């Protein structure tokens, strides 16, 4: 599967707090870093990384009755991108979840769909027609991002081996996305062009 300038790589929430030992650890997330680095070197038209960037009193935190432990507080070590993630290939860094009153799983919009991040417009402006989504967590932010990408009119593919889930079985998530017209592919299929 050849990558061209009309393709984008969306790296979702590869942050310290989502790595093993972090406040909201996703099992195996640290193992994704070398693979995502290799993907970032492919000739994508855009490489975008999202970051949860929450205020200290964010509505999603258990301290405010939300479902999650305090994580990715703006400016904290936990909000930093994963150590070893090659940032020189990342052209756009997008921060989400800044509004204390609403969560934002997707890199395109908040959970209520009221406030857009501008990502769709940015990608269209650059001539992007297809997006590949990698990162964490497959069952939350990756899935929400993929759905919003599809809704925005992009051909959307989840890089299933470049994602990790919190709870749900990956095959069930991918089957649900398939039913919505969102495909999935192994990173090896993209990386094969480097050696072809």
Shape: globular
What is the gyration radius calculated from CA atoms? 16 Å
> Major beta sheet, specifics?
6 strands, parallel
The spatial strand order of the largest sheet comes to: 3-2-1-4-5-6
Q: What's the total helix number?
A: 5
Level of helix content?
A: 25-40%
Question: What is the string of helix and strand elements?
Answer: EHEEHEHEHEH
Structural class: alpha/beta
Total DSSP E strands: 6
Distance between the termini: 11 Å
What share of residues are in beta strands?
15-25%
Uncertain runs: none
Average pLDDT score:
96
Summary keywords:
196 residues, alpha/beta, 6 strands, globular, 6-stranded parallel sheet
Overall description:
With 196 residues, this protein is α/β, with parallel strands linked by helices. It has five helices and six strands, in the order E-H-E-E-H-E-H-E-H-E-H. Helix 1 (32-40) links the parallel strand 1 (7-12) and strand 2. The radius of gyration is 16 Å and the shape is globular.
Helix-strand blueprint:
Elements: E1 7-12, H1 32-40, E2 46-52, E3 92-96, H2 119-125, E4 130-136, H3 138-151, E5 155-164, H4 170-179, E6 183-185, H5 187-195
